[in-house]
Structures are given as structure tokens and as C-alpha cells.
Amino acid sequence: MKPLLMTSSLLAILCAGTTPAWAQDAQSQPKAANAPETQGGAPEDIIVTGRAGTGDRTKAEMSYSVTRIGEETLRLQAPTSVTEALKSVPGFWVEASGGEASGNVRARGVPVDGFGSIQLLEDGIPVQHDPALGYLNGDQVFRLDETIERIEVVRGGPASLFYSNAPAGAVNFIPRRVGDQAEGLVKATLGADSQYRMDFWVGAPVGEWKLAVGGFYRSEGGVRDPGFTANRGGQIRATVSREWERAKFSLDVKRMDDIVGFYTGIPMRTYPDGKIRAVPGFDGHYGTVAGPETERVRMIEGDGSIYNFDNSVGTQVKRTQITGKFEFEPWDGWKIANTTRYNDTTTQRNGVFPNTLQSAASLLQSQSALLGQAPGATALQFRYATSPGQVFDTANQNGNGLVIVGGLRGLTMPVKEVMSDTRFSYRFEMGSMTHDITFGYYFAHIDEDFSRYSSTALLDVQDNARLLDLVAVDAAGNVVRTFTDHGIYKYGYEWEDAHGEQTTNALYLSDEWQITPRLRVDGGVRWETMRARGTVALKKTVNLGTPATSSIITGSGVYANYDNDFSHATWTLGLDYQFSGHAGLFARYTSANRLPSLGNYVTSPTAKPIVQTMDLGEVGLKYASPLLDLYATGFWTKYNNVSFTNYRFDLNTGASVSEALYANTQTFGVELEGTLRPVRWFDLSGTATLEEPKYKGLTYVDATGKSFDYDGNRLIRVPTVSLRLVPGLNLLDGRFRLQASWEYEGARYVDTANSVRLPAYATINLSTRFDISKGLSVYGYIDNVNNSLGLTEGNPRAGEVQNGDAGANTFIARPLIGRNFRAALMYRF
């Protein structure tokens, strides 16, 4: 009894004076430093994304689904990437196991990789016009830091009315604003993976102007340690702004020079107990195929020159971004606004990709014909490229006897963009009704170069895999001939060289029609045109005289030109009925589209891409109060001609075959989002997505002419059930917060044939904050507490139509990153 009494007494002291939230006056409650944001119509709950007009609206007043992630919620969640920041958004399935960039988001059942279904915005204008620009995801060129104050996420709804390439939603990262007094913060972070990071932001009024500067720098080995520092670099931004009686102006300049590693799949196995773990000899939680032996490789090109592959560069982004914003209210009820952004970005994206996995014995058997090219040879062997005398044990090397046929891939993508969005808004009354009308014009011009070169390497299966040579030996074990070049099996299995320009023009018109104080109808139409033109080098295969250089793909000297125009209309109509200021009902229908972009041409210039169209419907209930916030939305998505790439690697030819396929999809689902605050010291937040995503009319004919019918199959990678619960404790009058997140993802399929199933998984994260003083706080984080090996991705290089790993006991897949610890100290002034 005594321990129970002591525990009860301690809890009573910590929570002294606490009464149920519904018995307290929300307006009179003091907000503790760094306390979680409240909702229910508070000024900090104003939504600016997915709408235009002269007035403000809160989340509870919106006629579409929107999630707001405030400053402290974001800080406690402490996402390690842009993709991770979106895991609290219902309707989004996110996959961030690849590291800090190059994540995947599936929104409302749309089966598009990367960020092809949603638009990434910063301060209301795209980070990159097309966030899925052919191996260049929008999250690669954007980094989260303490200069960002909050995130607003629009799911479906009017996103495609106001933004290009946003058929299923838009994510808006909103920077901090300078107030009337000088303020700032400094935050230092340490991580168990050799992470050292410093964030800062300082803003102050200087005369009639306001100035701000902020950014971050970090060095991090990486949770999956490649044997070198995988993540290093940072960014800095400076902002100058001024407000007049009827006008606002700001100029923001940001420079990023950053490198992040990219985690690809690892060798996994289904064991007799039914559990999936890494193969023997490989650490599934912290291991990676990349390592010192594949860090730097001199790859021979078709003209005999050298391509210097440097995996320590990983995904390197050097970017200069300049953004200007202007707002002017010439008369009462009128507003003119413009945001213009210029980007100059160069991205180098390198990676070590496990194309196929098989036993060493079977791989040697498949290559037995090579013995005919080595007179006197009696057998084939694998030997270590850096230790030629060490023979690979085909039965049990590294405890597994497996070999990876890997791809060393390097891509270079310089991109320059100009984007401008101009809006004219007018609010007027017609009797007892009001109209808030906006006419807008969006312009974007993109200039992109694209080059790619890849080679095939033979690797053993262990953490930081080592290079293997394929050799022929005589009866005495002497090497008669070597068929590889220091671990490289085939040089040049991929080669691309392209340049393109794209110009987009869009006109849009929206109206928020307040019929009665409780009833509002809003809608709009967007007409968008795009012209793409450019050149793509055609290819040929050359033989430079050695087995490794016998089939190098290179340029033929002939170029294919393209010059295409596309156009399409988007329209949306929504209805909102407010039962009160805190509760309402909305419904919306949207006819959206996604126009092609330069990314559609970089590898296939001769086939004109198609416009993808989709229909989206949603009905939602919303309620917000000091006790409970609850948002429930039922949605329907019909996606026409969604494109996806079927990628297959052929060891015998040394080539990778890429096919662009199209299908229709249909998804019915329910999204739930809410927060319960029964007492001041405890709250519970949660999100849930239940959906049934299916292909419609998908048929496929393989290379042999055999037909397959996958109509009614589940969409790839999309689970039918996604859950996230976040219980939190607020003690010591709000100075101490402890929260956990439990995340569950249901089973998913790797391919459209639904032949490879990824099992369901759950993971737990912990985070805490303690305010040492008014300005000084310490944070602690444990990611993946339960060390879940949940599989987020299969092997897309084995095919996304009919996956080559079907039925395999051992395969390539990408699990969650292992348990990791971080701590941060932040000082606000």
C-alpha cells in the first residue's frame, strides 16, 4: 500500500490545482512556455493554405480537410525529414526509411511514388514547380529547421485549384515572422549516430523594417552507418520585411549546401517462426549495403573517359532561393498579392542499389558459360576485389553465402526555375450575403539538365558490403581469367543525357459565397497550359574489349527532340455549414488533373505523355472545443491514367528495362483526426485512416505475350489501415511534457499482382521536454523504441507489376531505421 500512496501523493503534488478542461475558462488559462497548441478557433489556428480572399478563417471554419502542425507539436515530434513531418496527417501514408530525403508519400490512395500526388509549398508558393521532377523529389531540395514556424496540410479539396501538381493535397511550410520586439532562439542537438546539429533564428525590428536570419548546420554519421559521414551541411536564410498601413513587402534569400545519405533496401529473410528479419551476418536495424569499398569508384564510360562515382556525396544539393512577397489593399475590401520565387539548384544524387539478391552458388551456375572463354579453367569463383587471395565461401560466407548484384548509380540535375503567383481579391456584399472573389495568375518556367550513369557491381552480403570479382580458376585454384574489373561486372548499364525547358501558365477564379451566417458555398475553376520542349540523347552500345566493358551504353551522337503542349481545366465546389463557431459540416467535389512535366521525358523522349485526371469527393464533420477536437472525413478518389514505372534489371544483358504503364484506381476511405484534453495534465491525440484502394481495369501483357488481369487488386504500398496515437503528460504546471507515439501500418503489397505482401507493423517513439527556465528547455527523443523491423518497401527494381521476389524466402526490402537517441538544448530570448 505504501508505494501506491506515495505515487498518488506525488501525482497530486505534480497536478495540484488541475481541474477538468471542460470546467475551465479557456480564455483565462495561461499558456505555459512551449505548451502544445490548442485549437477550436484560437487566433493561432488561422489557416492560409488552400484558399484566397481578404478575410481569415480558422480550421473549424474550413470547407475542406486540413491539418495544422504547430511549432511546439513539430518540435516535440522532431521529424528527421520532410516526409517524417507528415506522419501525423490522416490520409497520408509516408515512407521515410530512405533517410533525410527522397521519401515517398501516398495520399488518399493515389499510387504515385515520391511527391507526385501532393505539392510542397514554402510560404504559399511551390518549393519546386513539379515536386516529382524525374528522380528529383521536392523533399530533396527542402530542409526543415527552426526558421519554420508551422505546417499546414490540405488533403484533396481546393489544393489543385490554387497550386499546380497538387491533385491530392498541398503541404505548406510557413516561416517565422518577426514581431514588434527582438527575439530569437538557438538549439543544439546531439544524436547517438554521431549527430551534431545547431539551429538558430533571430529576428528584430530595425527602424521601420524587420530583419531576420536563421538556419542550421549539422554533421551526422547516419543511423545506418556507411562507414563515412553520410549527412553534412546546412542552410542559411535572411529576410527583410516592412509593413505600411495598406501594404506589406518581404524579401527572403536562402542558400542551402547540404549532403544526405540515401538508404536503399537490405537483404531480408522469412524465418521458420514466421518473422522477417535481416539475413544472418547483416544488421537489419543499423546495417547498409553501402560502405567504404563502394564509396568511390572510377567507372569507365563508353568513350574511355572516367566517371568518378562518389557515394560520400550521396544526395548533394546546392541551392540558391530568392522569394519576394507583396500585398497591397488599394481600397477597403480589395487586396492585390504577389509571390515570386527564383531557384538555382544543382543536385548530385548517388546511391548503391541492390538490384538482385541470390545465392553465390546459383549465380555462379548461371554464369557457367563463361568457362568457355577461359581455356584451362575448370571452375568459377568469387574472390574479394581488395583481397584477391581470399576465396568466397559459396556455402556460408558471412553466415549466408549470398551475393548482391548492385547498381552504382549517379545522377546530375541542374535546375533553374522562376515561379510567380499573382492574386486580385475583392470582398463585397449583396444584401445579407457576401462574396469573396479572387482572380489569380500563376507562371512558371523551368530549365533542367539531366544526366545519369550507372554500373553493375558484385557485392557480398554484410554490413558495408565488399566488392567481389568473378574469376575462372584451373584445377590447382590458380586464376586463369578475371571477368570483372575490381568488382564491376558491367560498366554503363544506364546512361542518359537530356535537356528540357517547360513553361506553365494558369488562370484561376475562386469565390467564397457566404449565403447566411451559417452557410457558405465556395468553388472555383483553374485553366492551366504547359509547353515542354527539349532534347534527349539517343543511345548505342559499345564494346571496349574487356568483359566488364563489353556492353557499355553511351550516346550515339543523335538526339531526339520534343515540343509538346498540354492543357486542362480543374474545378471544385464545396459547401460548409456551421452549427456553431466550433462545429460544422462540409462537403466537396473536385475534378483535378496532373499535367506532364520534364520528368516524363528524361528517359523516353519519343512517347508523348498523357494528362492524368482524377475525381475527388469528401464529406466531413468538424468539432473543436477546449475538451475535444474531432475531424472525421469520408473520401472517394477516382484516379484515371495514373502512371507508374515497371523497372526490371536483367543480369544476363546487364541492362535495366523501364516500362511506363497506366491504370485507373478507385479508393473509398475514412479519415479521423482528433485531440482529447480531459484534464490539464493529460491529452490524447490520434489519427486513423481506413481505406479500400483498388485498381480498375488494369491488364498487362508481358514480354512473352502472356496477359494478366489485375482488376480489383489492391494498390501497391497502400495499407487499408493506418493508426497513430499520441498520449501526453503535462506536469509541473506545463514545464514538463512527456509523450509517446504508437504508429501502426497495415499490410501492403509490393506489386500490382499482389504477389508480394509486406506484413503489418507497429512502432513506438518517445519524446520529452523540460523547461529549465522561461527561456531554456531541454528535449529528449527515442526513435523506434521497440526496434521494429517493419518493412516499408519491397524491391522496386524487381518489378512493380509482377515482382520477381514473389515466393522467395530471401529478398530485398527496406525496413524502418533502428532505434536511435537524440537530445537537444534550446534557448529562447
Can you walk me through this structure?
There is one protein chain. This protein is mainly beta. The chain has a single domain (38-828), classed as Maltoporin, Chain A. Helix content is 4%, strand content 57%. It contains four helices and 45 strands. It has a 22-stranded antiparallel beta barrel. Strands 3-8-9-6-7 form a five-stranded mixed β-sheet. Strands 16-15-44-43 form a four-stranded antiparallel β-sheet, with no helix packed on it. Strand 27 (488-514) and strand 28 (519-542) form a beta hairpin. The longest helix is centred in the N-terminal third of the chain and has 13 residues, at 2-14. The relative contact order is 0.13. Mean pLDDT is 90; it is low at 1-43.
CATH fold field value: Maltoporin, Chain A
CATH architecture: Beta Barrel
Proportion of residues in β-strands: over 45%
What would the average pLDDT be, to the nearest integer?
Answer: 90
Which superfamily, in CATH terms, is the homologous superfamily? TonB-dependent receptor, beta-barrel domain
Helix content: under 10%
Poorly predicted ranges = 1-43
Q: Major sheet, described briefly?
A: 22 strands, antiparallel, barrel
The counted number of beta strands is 45
Q: Note the gap between the termini.
A: 46 Å
How many helices does DSSP assign? 4
Notable features of this structure?
Maltoporin, Chain A; 22-stranded antiparallel barrel; single chain; mainly beta; disordered N terminus
Concise description?
It is found in: Cell outer membrane. It holds the Pfam family Plug. The chain is mainly beta and 829 residues long.
